[in-house]
UniProtKB/TrEMBL annotation:
<dbReference type="Pfam" id="PF00009">
    <property type="entry name" value="GTP_EFTU"/>
</dbReference>
<feature type="region of interest" description="Disordered">
    <location>
        <begin position="1"/>
        <end position="24"/>
    </location>
</feature>
<dbReference type="InterPro" id="IPR035647">
    <property type="entry name" value="EFG_III/V"/>
</dbReference>
<keyword id="KW-0251">Elongation factor</keyword>
<dbReference type="InterPro" id="IPR041095">
    <property type="entry name" value="EFG_II"/>
</dbReference>
<dbReference type="InterPro" id="IPR005517">
    <property type="entry name" value="Transl_elong_EFG/EF2_IV"/>
</dbReference>
<feature type="region of interest" description="Disordered">
    <location>
        <begin position="356"/>
        <end position="377"/>
    </location>
</feature>
<dbReference type="InterPro" id="IPR005225">
    <property type="entry name" value="Small_GTP-bd"/>
</dbReference>
<dbReference type="InterPro" id="IPR000640">
    <property type="entry name" value="EFG_V-like"/>
</dbReference>
<feature type="region of interest" description="Disordered">
    <location>
        <begin position="297"/>
        <end position="318"/>
    </location>
</feature>
<dbReference type="InterPro" id="IPR035649">
    <property type="entry name" value="EFG_V"/>
</dbReference>
<protein>
    <submittedName>
        <fullName>Elongation factor G</fullName>
    </submittedName>
</protein>
<feature type="region of interest" description="Disordered">
    <location>
        <begin position="190"/>
        <end position="220"/>
    </location>
</feature>
<feature type="compositionally biased region" description="Low complexity">
    <location>
        <begin position="301"/>
        <end position="314"/>
    </location>
</feature>
<dbReference type="Pfam" id="PF00679">
    <property type="entry name" value="EFG_C"/>
</dbReference>
<keyword id="KW-0547">Nucleotide-binding</keyword>
<dbReference type="Pfam" id="PF14492">
    <property type="entry name" value="EFG_III"/>
</dbReference>
Length: 716
C-alpha cells in the first residue's frame, strides 16, 4: 500500500471535506455496486473511466500496462485480468459510490460472491462486440449468481466504439438469457453514432415532456417511449397510469421514482450503453446508480447466529444499531501484511475500538474423503481484536477516514487471525452472520519442495496462503504422501503457485498420484519361515497362514486357529502384527491389501530362539507368499459425481462421462432447464474434470464429488 498517499488522504480527512465525502454519516448518501460480467467485457476499464469522470483520479490506467486502480495485485497485472475483488470509491452528486470490481474468470467465482456480498446492487457489464463470441453461457452463469445473491441489477453494454459493436445483438442475447426470470430489460439510454464513428450516449429520462413523441431524427427507434410505457406498466401508482392513458404529461421525477421502485423489486433491469475510453455515457451511468440503486438501508436483514451456533435475530441495516460488520475479502499489501475488506451492515465502525471477532462454524471445511486437510481451520470461536485505523480503499491506496457507517465499505489492517467470512461486532452483543456459500475446489495440484531446505519455506507459505485464499484446500495425503493443493481451476492454480513462490518457497509441480488398493483374486496358503543362527541368541519362527477374499469394504480380518500349542499364545499377537503391517504397506509398494481374511493355521516355535519380533517377521513373509500365490486384483477409488448441466448440453456431458469409464446411475430434472446427472467415476478420470467440464459446457455446468468405495480397475 502507498503510505504517502494514505497519509495525505488522512490529513485531508481530518481537515473535513475529504473525510465527509469518503465517510458519509447518512447511509442515504451511499451506494455500493458490484461490477460483474464475463471476461474481457471491459469491467476494469469501466471502473477506471468512472473514477476519472468523477474526479477521483487524474487519468485512466491501462489493463495491458498494469496501471489500473483495481488490478493492483501482481498476479492480476501478470495475467492481465482481475483475480480478486477490489474497491474504488468516488463521489457523484454528493453521493459516495463504492465500485467493487470483480473477476470475470470462472476460476474466481468465490471472489465474485465476495463482491456480491459487499454490494447492494449489480452493474452487469457485457461487451457489445462479444454477442457472437459465445458470451451467452458465461452471462447466464453470472446472472444466476446475481439472482442467487438477491441483488437488484443494471445492465451495462460496453465497448460501443468497437469495430464489431452490435448493441442490439448484445441486448437480444441478454434478454434471451433472462427469459423466464420475470425480469424486464429496457434501455434507459440511446446511442448515436456520427459519420466519423463518434459515439454519443443520450439518457432517455431527460427533457421536458417524456410522453411526447420524439422527432424521428432524435429517436428513430422510439426507445424513449418504450421506456416510459414500461415504467408506467411497472408502476404501482394508479393515478400515473390514468394520466398516461388520458394523454396527460408525466413528470420525470415520478418516472425516476418508478424506475427505482422497479429496480429494487428486481422486476426491471435498466440497460445503459457506455463507451468508457471516450467517456460517452459515463455521467448518465453515474446518475442511474444514484437514482436507481437502493440505499443500504433498503438491504434485507441478514440471517445471523450466536457465536456458539445457536439462533440469533436477523441483523437490520440500521446505522444507529449495534455494530455488525463482516470481512468479505482478505488480501495483502506490497509488504505482505494482511488487509481486510470489511462491509458494515449495522452501526458505525470507528478507529481505536475493541471488537469481538466471531467465526462462522458453517465455513469450517470438513475433511475431504475422511482425510485430514492441513489447510482446514479449526473452529476458532470468538476472539477480541482492536481496530486501530479505518481506511477508505482506492484499490491499493488506503485513505484514513473517521468512521464507516452501515452500508459502507472500508479496509482494516492488523486484525490478527481474523479471516474472510468472520463477523466483527460489539463485545456486549456478539453475533455471527451466516456466511455465503463457497465453491468447492475440485482441481488437484501436487507440489513438492525443490530440496530439503525449501520444505520449511513451503510450509510457511502454505500457512499464509490458507489465511487469504478462501477456496484453497491443502491436503497431505496419507496414502501417497503428497501435498496436494485443491484449486478451483487452472487460473486459480497459477495464482496460488505464483504467490507460494513469491513467499520464498521453491516448489515444483508433480503428477497427482491416485491411491490404489489390492485384494486377492482367490484363496491360497503361505509359509513364513524366519530362522537365523549366528553364534549367539538366534531367531526362530515358522507360521503357516491361509488367505481368502472378503466382500468389498470388509477390511482385514485375522483368525487364530492354532491348536496344540505349536505356537505359544504369547507369540500369536506378533504374527498378527506382522501380517497387518505387511498388508498395510502392500505386497506391491504403495498398494495396501484390503478385504481379506487371514487365518493362522500352523507353525513352530523354539524354546530359546523364538521371540515376538521373530514371529512378526515370519507373519510378514507368510503374507507375501500367500498373496503372490493367490494373485491380486488392483482396486481404484470410485466417486459419486453429481453434475448440474443445461439440458442442451446433456448429451455431451453423458458422452464425456462414458469416455471416463463413468457409470450413470440416474438423471433428474433440475431448475430452469437444467438436468442433474448422478454417476460413478474413477478418481483417475476426475483429476482434470473441473477444467474439462468447464471447457465442454462453456462454464455453465458444475459438479460435486464424494468418495464412494474401491472397485476393481476398469479394463480398456
Amino acid at each position: 500500500m502507498s503510505g504517502a498517499k494514505a497519509g495525505d488522504a488522512a490529513r485531508r480527512g481530518r481537515n473535513g471535506r475529504a473525510g465527509s465525502e469518503l465517510a458519509p454519516d447518512d447511509p442515504a448518501a451511499l451506494r455500493s455496486v458490484a461490477i460483474v460480467g464475463p471476461m474481457a467485457a471491459g469491467k476494469t476499464t469501466l471502473v477506471e473511466e468512472l473514477l476519472v469522470a468523477a474526479g477521483a483520479i487524474p487519468r485512466a490506467g491501462s489493463v495491458a500496462a498494469g496501471t489500473t486502480v483495481t488490478d493492483h495485485d501482481p498476479d492480476a497485472r501478470r495475467q492481465q485480468r482481475s483475480v480478486a475483488p477490489a474497491v474504488a470509491s468516488l463521489v457523484h452528486r454528493d453521493v459516495k459510490i463504492n465500485l467493487v470490481d470483480t473477476p470475470g474468470c470462472p476460476d474466481f467465482l468465490a471472489e465474485v460472491r465476495a463482491g456480491l456480498r459487499a454490494a447492494d446492487a449489480v452493474l452487469f457489464v457485457v461487451g457489445t462486440a462479444d454477442a457472437a463470441d459465445g458470451v451467452a453461457a458465461p452471462t447466464s452463469a453470472l446472472l444466476a449468481e446475481c439472482r442467487r445473491a438477491g441483488l437488484p441489477a443494471m445492465l451495462v453494454l460496453s465497448r460501443l466504439d468497437h469495430a464489431r459493436a452490435d448493441e442490439a445483438a448484445a441486448l437480444a442475447t441478454c434478454r434471451e438469457v433472462a427469459a423466464g426470470s420475470g425480469e424486464v430489460l429496457v434501455p434507459v439510454t440511446r446511442t448515436e453514432r456520427g459519420p466519423d464513428g463518434t459515439v454519443t450516449v443520450h439518457p432517455l429520462l431527460s427533457g421536458d415532456d417524456p410522453t411526447a413523441e420524439d422527432p424521428e431524427e432524435l429517436d428513430p427507434s422510439g426507445c424513449r417511449r418504450e421506456l416510459v410505457e414500461t415504467l408506467i406498466e411497472q408502476s404501482e401508482d394508479e393515478a400515473l397510469l390514468e394520466s398516461w392513458i388520458g394523454g396527460e404529461p408525466v413528470a420525470l421525477d415520478a418516472l425516476r421514482t418508478d424506475l427505482a421502485t422497479a429496480v429494487a423489486r428486481r422486476s426491471l433491469i435498466p440497460v445503459a450503453g457506455v463507451c468508457a475510453p471516450t467517456g460517452a455515457g459515463l455521467d448518465a451511468l453515474l446518475d442511474l446508480v444514484v437514482d436507481a440503486v437502493p440505499p443500504p438501508t433498503a438491504h434485507q436483514p441478514l440471517p445471523a447466529h450466536a457465536p456458539d451456533g445457536a439462533g440469533h435475530a436477523p441483523v437490520d441495516p440500521d446505522p444507529d444499531g449495534p455494530l455488525v460488520a463482516e470481512v468479505v475479502h482478505t488480501g495483502t499489501d506490497a509488504q505482505g501484511s494482511r488487509v481486510s475488506l470489511v462491509r458494515v451492515f449495522s452501526g458505525r465502525l470507528r478507529p481505536d475500538t475493541a471488537l469481538t471477532s466471531c467465526s462462522d462454524p458453517l465455513r469450517v471445511p470438513a475433511p475431504r474423503d475422511g482425510e485430514d486437510p492441513a489447510g482446514a481451520e479449526a473452529v476458532r470461536g470468538s476472539e477480541t481484536v482492536r481496530v486501530n485505523r479505518v481506511y477508505a480503499p482506492l484499490g491499493a491506496t488506503l485513505r484514513e477516514v473517521p468512521w464507516c457507517v452501515a452500508g459502507d465499505l472500508c479496509a482494516l489492517t492488523r486484525l490478527g487471525s481474523v479471516a474472510t467470512g468472520d463477523t466483527l461486532c460489539a463485545a456486549e452483543d456478539p453475533v455471527g452472520l451466516d456466511g455465503w456459500e463457497l465453491p468447492e475446489a475440485l482441481l488437484p495440484v501436487a507440489v513438492t519442495a525443490a530440496d530439503r531446505s525449501a520444505q520449511d519455506a513451503m510450509a510457511r507459505g502454505l500457512a499464509r496462503l490458507a489465511a487469504t485464499e478462501t477456496t484453497l484446500r491443502v491436503e497431505r495425503n496419507e496414502d501417497t504422501h503428497q501435498i496436494v493443493l485443491w484449486c478451483t481451476g487452472e487460473a486459480h492454480a497459477d495464482v496460488v503457485l505464483a504467490r507460494l513462490r513469491a513467499s520464498g518457497a521453491s516448489v515444483e509441480v508433480t503428477d497427482v498420484a491416485v491411491p490404489e488398493r489390492e485384494t486377492v483374486a482367490g484363496s491360497a496358503t503361505g509359509l513364513g519361515r524366519h530362522v537365523k543362527q549366528s553364534g549367539g541368541h538366534g531367531q526362530f519362527a515358522v507360521c503357516r497362514i491361509e488367505i481368502e477374499p472378503l466382500p468389498r469394504g470388509s477390511g482385514v480380518e485375522f483368525v487364530d486357529k492354532i491348536v496344540g500349542g505349536v505356537i505359544p499364545r504369547a507369540y500369536i499377537p506378533g504374527v498378527e502384527k506382522g501380517v497387518r503391517a505387511q498388508l498395510e504397506s502392500g505386497v506391491t509398494p504403495g498398494r495396501p491389501v484390503v478385504d481379506v481374511r487371514v487365518t493362522l493355521v500352523d507353525g513352530k516355535a523354539h524354546s530359546v530362539d523364538s521371540s515376538d519380533q521373530a514371529f512378526q517377521t515370519a507373519g510378514s513373509l507368510a503374507i507375501k507368499e500367500a498373496v503372490a500365490s493367490a494373485g491380486t486384483v488392483v482396486m481404484e477409488r470410485l466417486y459419486e459425481v453429481e453434475v448440474e448441466v443445461d439440458d442442451g448440453q446433456l448429451g455431451a456431458v453423458l458422452g464425456d462421462l462414458a469416455s471416463r469409464h463413468g457409470r450413470v446411475v440416474g438423471t433428474e430434472p433440475g431448475e430452469s432447464g437444467h438436468t442433474r446427472v448422478r454417476a460413478e467415476v474413477p478418481e483417475q478420470a476426475l483429476l482434470r474434470y473441473a477444467v474439462d467440464l468447464r471447457a465442454l459446457t462453456s462454464g455453465t455446468a458444475s459438479f460435486t464429488r464424494r468418495f464412494s468405495r474401491y472397485e476393481p480397475v476398469a479394463s480398456g
